[in-house]
């Protein structure tokens, strides 16, 4: 019976319209967004007029247990100067990890104040043995929950 219900759920998931949404948890526990944002990269360009820093080449951004890797990252500072990170915008293939959870996509935007992480472009989320793909993902890092939107696809594991 359990296998039939899992199969039925999978069939229903695959037949949902293009605007389907699947709720996910990411990281499992609440996130402390008050921690500093640390960036490591091969290069850095500063623009004092726009209040932005552009990191290029093997960029790694870390805040607590949240880790983001990308080809390029633009840091937008808030009104308090270069210690007040407002946004982290990543491009060039992005991988985000937190605990055992991972997500990848073409680009990402992390709003530090609201702790919202948005991945776009062929998003793939892996959580243990479960994988979910879609067009975009939005995660509230404080709450540890989020959603995958677009043509969502997942494979549900069976039990013997």
TrEMBL record:
Organic solvent tolerance-like N-terminal domain boundaries: 38-143
GO MF terms, alphabetically ordered: glycolipid transfer activity
Record has Transcription as a keyword: no
Signal peptide as annotated in the record: 1-20
Keywords: Signal
PANTHER family: LIPOPOLYSACCHARIDE EXPORT SYSTEM PROTEIN LPTA
Superkingdom, natural source: Bacteria
Entry GO terms, CC: cell outer membrane; outer membrane-bounded periplasmic space
Keyword Protease among UniProt keywords: no
Organism of derivation: Gymnodinialimonas phycosphaerae
Protein known as: Lipopolysaccharide transport periplasmic protein LptA
Transmembrane segments: none
Biological processes per GO annotation: lipopolysaccharide transport
